[in-house]
Predict the 3D structure of the following.
Amino acid sequence: MLRSLSLVCLAIAFCSPVLAADAVKPVFRKPSADAAAHLQKQRQFVADLVRQHFPGDKITRTSTDFALLQKIVDAKVLKKEETWKFQSLGIVFGDALTHTIDGLAWWEVTDEYGTDPTLRYRETTLHLNALTMISKRIEDGRDVEVQHMADWLAEFVRTKGHEYEKTPNQSPEPTAPSGRRGSSNVRQKSDAATTGNTTHR
């Protein structure tokens, strides 16, 4: 019963539509060199964190990282306000998702919130904001169940991914991040799967 309720709550968290008629249509491009370097910096932070607190474990960019990320969260080695560090966990979570869910890859998305890294599915409008999936839950005081999130996302992409339209890739000048990475008010669609002008939480 509790598990069923948890599934319902997670579905609401990822899939409640927030309509924005005047929203900017998202534009995707391959990560720039600077963006790729920033992602690598965040991966390195997590690798160093694991080496310090969990010697013997290591980041593998596979599904085994879900349990390791859960261990980090449960050990409370990071403070709630350390948003960038929790978002670094989100990058490692996203790396593991790309191994678990065929067709996912890191892109940059530019929309009304600015430019951020995102996991895009097969060059469609479906993209998963792995960056803040963990940090936003920590900020909101919600439970973080890493494996549960991964399983739900895999099922969502498997059953709904074909419904999202393919879009031509564009290369706009990226907009400034506006300090979102270090802010407690990180983008409104923080832990969402998104498409076009509709945000799915």
Summary: Confidence is low (pLDDT under 50) at residues 1-22, 172-191, 194-201. The first strand starts at residue 17 and ends at 19.
